[in-house]
Amino acid sequence: MHIIQLTFVLLITLFFSPATWASSIAQGHDLFQNVCVYCHGMGDKQRFAPILTGIGERRDVTWLNAWLKNPGKILKYDEYAQALLDGNDYGIHMPQIPSMKDDDKRASVIKYLLFKF
Ligand code: HEC
User: Fold this and answer.
1) Residue nearest to atom 26 of ligand 1 (CA)
2) pLDDT higher than threshold 60 for residue 105
3) What pLDDT, on a 0 to 100 scale, did the predictor assign at position 19?
4) What is the pLDDT of residue 37?
5) 73 in Cβ contact with 95 (< 8 Å)
6) So what's the pLDDT on residue 21?
7) DSSP letters for the chain
8) For residues 93 and 35, what is the distance between their CA atoms, to the nearest angstrom?
9) Could you identify the atom of ligand 1 that is nearest to the CA of residue 88?
10) How many Å lie between the centroid of ligand 1 and the Cα of residue 40?
11) pLDDT tens-digit map of 7-39
């Protein structure tokens, strides 16, 4: 199977597995509180990065997955990501976050952002 198809199937499986849905969102919440909130803030309280309220209206699962996994990689080809950096006056950029290399943890944060944030 082609690597992109394989990644897609893996992503869909992780994302839509109902048995782990609630605990996964709870894990996403904890990860967000421990790592992301430092820069992004919570709700409408902004810190050093864009407010993520309503992110699901701006970005889809595939984009969020690529961004969280490795912001530097998607920046090479994605115009939205490039514009995000160009329009950034925070003086700080989104780092590659070690825990977001883990497929399960990344999926849980994405679920949290899209459904509970
Ligand atoms: C060190 C600060 C920092 C941390 C920690 C951080 N981010 Fe970011 N994030 C940014 C900045 C700054 C941007 C804007 C783009 C840029 O300049 O890199 C951004 C952009 C984003 C975007 C795109 C926002 C939009 O409006 O399209 C998402 C989604 C995002 N971050 C999610 C997360 C998540 C989820 C975490 C935790 C796992 C996280 N970030 C941790 C600084 C951070």
Assistant:
1) 50
2) yes
3) 57
4) 94
5) no
6) 78
7) --HHHHHHHHHHHHHH-GGGHHHHHHHHHHHIIIIIHHHH-STT---SS---TTHHHH--HHHHHHHHH-HHHHTTT-HHHHHHHHT--SS--PPPPGGGGSHHHHHHHHHHHHHT-
8) 14
9) 17
10) 7
11) 776 676 666 666 577 888 999 999 999 999 999
CATH of domain 21-115: 1.10.760.10
Q: Is 14 in the pocket of ligand 1 (CB under 6 A)?
A: no
pLDDT of residue 10: 67
The response to whether residue 72 sits with its C-beta less than 6 Å from ligand 1 reads: no
- Domain extents in the chain: 21-115
pLDDT surpassing 80 at residue 113:
yes
